[in-house]
Design a protein that fits this description.
With 216 residues, the chain is mainly beta. It is built from 1 helix and 15 strands. Strand 7 and strand 8 form a beta hairpin. It is globular and about 45 Å long.
Length: 216
């Protein structure tokens, strides 16, 4: 009887420990969510196009789309077309910061950047997550996750500026740990920004966008 009780207790303690470990793996643990409102969402779009023709916000979902024939952000810009949310009010140059959002990319969108940690040297971005042929790429260097079309995914990006280290999570799983890219100021962006081999129409949707900072 004693052996049975001892075994049952051991199993219970194992399950309790396992649950605790699983809970502790949430990438937002130890972070403080910062307040966001409409003033923090700056929509960058083709300069000659009305906002409602490239962006909508309904039922908590930001929908952003662009065509490869669109104009850039401003006149005479050498950049490609975009419709992006630029998070304002939380630019940072030190500390540990995090972006969280639930993203969705419809089938057919390709050759487009959907998320940025902006600010780097000599590159423009510390992180650029690009969609190409149904896969999500870190820059064009490595696949973060394949088969991303037509499903919601949870994205978390942690940026430890002082340690020059990042962590990228998809649906709570750590998928990539790239090094920092330098730069003196950073901020988060999401949406669609045309890149190479871009399709005629590009779209992404976002909900549950959060900015978090590591508690000190």
């Amino acid at each position: 009887m004693g052996a049975i009780i001892h075994h049952a207790l051991a199993v219970y303690l194992y399950l309790l420990l396992h649950q605790t470990v699983c809970w502790s793996l949430d990438p937002t643990d130890g972070f403080i969510e910062l307040p966001l409102n409409a003033s923090n969402f700056n929509i960058q779009k083709p300069y000659d196009t009305p906002l409602d023709q490239r962006y909508s916000f309904e039922d908590g979902i930001h929908k952003l789309w662009v065509f490869f024939t669109d104009k850039p952000l401003y006149q005479n810009s050498p950049t490609k077309p975009r419709t992006e949310i630029r998070i304002r009010g939380y630019d940072y140059s030190s500390g540990v910061w995090q972006f969280e959002g639930y993203g969705y990319v419809p089938n057919g969108t390709s050759g487009v950047c959907i998320t940025q940690v902006f600010g780097a040297s000599p590159r423009a971005q510390t992180v650029a997550l690009n969609v190409h042929n149904g896969s999500l790429w870190y820059y064009w260097d490595s696949i973060v996750i394949p088969n991303i079309y037509d499903k919601w995914f949870r994205l978390n990006i942690i940026h430890d500026v002082d340690a020059a280290q990042l962590q990228i999570f998809i649906d709570g799983d750590l998928t990539l740990e790239p090094a920092g890219q330098g730069g003196t100021s950073h901020y988060f962006k999401c949406g669609v920004y045309a890149q190479r081999d871009d399709t005629y129409y590009m779209e992404s949707r976002w909900r549950g966008i959060k900015v978090l900072k590591k508690s000190e």
